[in-house]
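Before drawing any conclusions, I looked closely at one protein, both as residues and as discrete backbone shape codes, quoted below without any editing:
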Amino acid sequence: MCDQDHFEEDREQFESLGLVTRKQFGMMLGAGVAMMLPQVANAAAVTESDVNVVTPDGTADCYFVHPASGTAPGVLVWPDIFGLRPAFRQMGKRLAESGYSVLVVNPFYRTKKAPTAEAGAATPIPQLMPLARGLNETTHMADAKAFVGWLDGQPSVAKNRKIGTQGYCMGGPIAFRTAAAVPDRVGAVGSFHGGGLVTESPNSPHLQAAKTKAQFLIAIAANDDARSPKDKDVLKETFANAKLAAEIEVYTGAAHGWCPPDSGVYNEPQAEKAWSRLLALYGKALA
């Protein structure tokens, strides 16, 4: 799902269609600097900090941002293969301004502190694959428990409300497994251009997620759907059989990676649509 050939092909294709401009692609991807996201109406004042979270395998460097006063539902954010960087800090802060206590993690902390992608979202995918291959079901589940436990220990996190989790690219299946790892705490799961949600394995992320009680938002890139057209049907059938609420949609004109604002295929209209659906999910499931 994250190979460099597809990434470059998608950028060229969507640029030729007028869905992404060279200016957007060139907006300091090399430095990992995000384009400005739309402002939040009536944004809450927030407090942000870099934090360290102890896990069974070490100490994870993370970004934590939450409303400056009161308590709010916790949200755990799993970045894409480019890791914790300015774009995801910006996304986390925007979510906190909408009323959530947000932990954005460095999934590769076992190997390297953030930033883990030397050139941000312009880093060649092959350079990052060794980092991604260092993660698996065991690390996903262990980290999920540690990060959710850390969130539950924060004064700004509402203990009487469920936690949400969202993942991008490789973070999609990790978000699914977070719900499976801590089913009593996770009430909502968002996957955006998630790669590897459906596999032939008996412990496929979609099968693990179906054993939870969470509600789901699964936003699928158009080109991912073209490559794996049966995945959406499998997801729909699996969650329907489990009697779990799941909004599953293919985003027309959106390429894999369309949501983070520093992506070469960032598609603002479709990214904003996905963001609005995420807020709707959290507003319902974490209330």
Q: What stands out?
A: Residues 268-285 form the longest helix (18 residues). Strands lie at 46-55, 58-67, 74-78, 101-105, 163-168, 186-192, 215-221, 246-251. The first strand starts at residue 46 and ends at 55. The radius of gyration is 17 Å.
